[in-house]
Design goal:
113 residues; single chain; globular; mainly alpha; 73% helix
Length: 113
């Protein structure tokens, strides 16, 4: 996936989050109607750069809670999820988000050292 397409998908996420917030504020409710779509779009973006799917639940079922989290075959997308959250909160720019996603291997490798 090229940067322009990734940027457009991120804009879609932002638009859904903004619409959801407007409804929540206007009606004073929690309204998660877009959450599954947002998660799907994030997964499409992460899949496009070859990031493995999160398998922590499966690995914990196989190896137990403690061993599953630390198993060498376990992969968790929480760090990437944090990037999307940080972007939505204004803590990083869209360019930083895209750069993190594209360079995810280097970032994840730095955490594992």
């Amino acid at each position: 996936m090229n940067k322009a397409t990734m940027s457009s998908l991120i804009d879609m996420i932002t638009d859904m989050e903004q619409k959801q917030k407007k409804v929540e504020d206007a009606l004073e409710i929690t309204w998660n109607v877009y959450e599954s779509y947002i998660s799907e779009i994030e997964a499409i973006i992460l899949d496009s750069v070859g990031m493995p799917r999160d398998n922590t639940v499966e690995m914990c079922k196989i190896h137990g809670d403690l061993e599953g989290f630390g198993h060498e075959d376990t992969f968790c997308r929480d760090i990437a999820g944090n990037w999307f959250f940080d972007y939505s909160e204004g803590d990083i720019t869209k360019d930083q988000l895209i750069n993190n996603v594209i360079n995810w291997k280097e970032i994840y490798n730095s955490y594992s050292k």
